[in-house]
Specification:
The structure is a homotetramer.
Chain A (H helix, E strand, L loop, with lengths): L7 H16 L6 H8 L4 H7 L2 H23 L6 H18 L3 H11 L1 H31 L8 H22 L9 H22 L2
Helix pairs in contact in A: 1-2, 1-4, 1-6, 4-5, 4-7, 5-8, 5-9, 6-7, 8-9
Chain A binds a DNA duplex (21 and 21 nucleotides) through helix 3.
Amino acid sequence: MELKQVNTEQTILEAAERVFIEKGYSATRCVEIAEAAGVNHAMLHYYFRSKESLFNRIFEQKAAQLLGFFVQAFDRELPFFEKLKIGIETHFDFLTQQPGLPLFVLREIIQDKERKDLILQKALPLGMEILKRMRQAINEEESQGNIRPMQAQDLLLNIASLNIFAFVAAQAIFDNQADITNEQYKNFLEARKKNNVEIIINSLKI
Amino acid sequence: MELKQVNTEQTILEAAERVFIEKGYSATRCVEIAEAAGVNHAMLHYYFRSKESLFNRIFEQKAAQLLGFFVQAFDRELPFFEKLKIGIETHFDFLTQQPGLPLFVLREIIQDKERKDLILQKALPLGMEILKRMRQAINEEESQGNIRPMQAQDLLLNIASLNIFAFVAAQAIFDNQADITNEQYKNFLEARKKNNVEIIINSLKI
Amino acid sequence: MELKQVNTEQTILEAAERVFIEKGYSATRCVEIAEAAGVNHAMLHYYFRSKESLFNRIFEQKAAQLLGFFVQAFDRELPFFEKLKIGIETHFDFLTQQPGLPLFVLREIIQDKERKDLILQKALPLGMEILKRMRQAINEEESQGNIRPMQAQDLLLNIASLNIFAFVAAQAIFDNQADITNEQYKNFLEARKKNNVEIIINSLKI
Amino acid sequence: MELKQVNTEQTILEAAERVFIEKGYSATRCVEIAEAAGVNHAMLHYYFRSKESLFNRIFEQKAAQLLGFFVQAFDRELPFFEKLKIGIETHFDFLTQQPGLPLFVLREIIQDKERKDLILQKALPLGMEILKRMRQAINEEESQGNIRPMQAQDLLLNIASLNIFAFVAAQAIFDNQADITNEQYKNFLEARKKNNVEIIINSLKI
DNA sequence: TATGAATGAGTCTTCATTCAT
DNA sequence: TATGAATGAAGACTCATTCAT
């Protein structure tokens, strides 16, 4: 009648995700993941062959999430400024759930050329798609004189910069275990979210 | 009659800086630094006792630079918007010289609690000073109805977000050896610099 | 209603024989045998307790075969030279069926003192028996002036040397999968067989 | 005033040679070699990078020795039968110095396809050269009616078989540490040497 | 100062073996 | 019997650090 791990593979995956995101690839030891998952370290290799392949599995998934969410956030049928506001907020809320994600991906992309190429290859089409839609929306509004001219690419980067950096800053300022129970942390993020929406809107409003 | 390194200590320091910034603490091997410096690896320990202490030496310096420059950039006697523009640009240009710096510092801060506390301890007074001056300037302009109300902290973070993220993005997109000879890279940064100034100005203009 | 292995134990034994002979004890992994046998690797231990005991089972059998056949080959009622010729050829043909056998046994005997002692203990009586009979036959012929004097032990070793080495050489020269379909391989062995008979006969003929 | 290893690299090489020859590649542990050499096991990797490359270094050298000696042994200006006798004896004496050599090389050649190809590639030209010279000598004698017809290849294999197998048998029968102080071992080899010369001579004499 | 050699504590990985089902 | 999961003891290899010269 033991409460055995229903799914060791999943347990490892989740532990690995936490540890890798916190420490990055090379600072993470396999035993650490095993301990975090409460399993024998040989299990990592039983299920995932090697540290690297376990990492890649997580990394690719996370990188995909990070980008995929961007599309999702801005893909609604709403008035332009409304869509923008909701999009920024949704993206921000997503990051709130996984505050370490952006830095994790960036760190490894920058550190490892192959990893970067791999990700870029997958990310480019998606990024192009996002840009295409944004450009369309911008053009429409712009032609109606509703907004100032702006490159879709710039808009995208502005949003990403402000949203992502909010969490990088939060991680750098607050304790690692920054959870929502921390009032200061919560307030900080709330303020940034509001600020980011305003800045972006202002940058477009005439 | 040899043309030996005039200053081995300095040579090591410079090599270590390059390698640590590129790969981060744990992915860097001492031998790698030694090779980059063209010296025997035992020299690292002769001069700096340990990998960690060599790293700290560089890390603290770089972290200080990163923040110190912020003060410097915004500490001029100029009309407000002028000062803002020049400040953002100066900061941006500084990062152009050392594009890997911000991510390097952030990466290690987030990875190591002690490092973070160490840095925060040193950075806080400086940060407070910057904020104080910004707040003063903002209040002045605001009371004269020249700008919208804004928290100094928010302004600071906005600038940092946009400027820093420009380089993170550039590193993620372009090749590691992104040098100024690369036209695309150069244009990308130029565009971001201009964009960042505009966004910030717009966020304050009434 | 499955068509399961009628006899798993036997299947494992056969697979183990193949793999052990090809790779030797320490280069062989249990999983490899299991795969070759098409069974779960836990079955090896279920049936044979350990890698070592499975190996020993095979090894002893093979070592016995190797020697046993020698007796059999020379134990017929025929004129001396006839008996010799047929014996050499029969022995040679036996090795053709199991070309890897001699090296396999020798390899492990030399590698492991205990194994060697074990084998020697079993082989000695058999070897003595063979020698006794040979000596008898030689003496008889010698006393009749039909052959030159020769130690039985030497005759035995000469035959073994020439026959066994033919296959060692073949393995070293031809591809591992040296099968009888390979013409060159076939011819090579055929030539050696003929050569060996002649040499031995010549060494005894007056 | 310590008696430090004059040459650690050499010490390791010698120890590795002994252990590898005795146990073969896969049954040999690096620590074992290190212990046999009386050095820290990290030294193996310091000097030779990996177990495999250390092995290859030894293996290639030994394989070359094994073949090279064959040429040397039969390359003298002497009457045919004299040359043959001296050649066989010289070869035999060489093996006496390194009794484990032939089996060591054969074992690994047979076990590893790549190793085999590597060796064959190097060995073939040498082998061809040996055969050419033998064939020449044989033809000359044969045309003068001094010897029976025989393929050079067969003669070569006969000698190799008898000489090499003497040591394989000795290793299988006597203790591993078979040294020349062991009278029985010594006598056994002496007898085999004499026997081998006779057999070969008889196989050619008319 | 400078160098090559040496050390020992890890770190990843493999593998025979056992266990629960 | 049969299977997939789990374990622990190695094993190869790395690397920061120290030492003798």
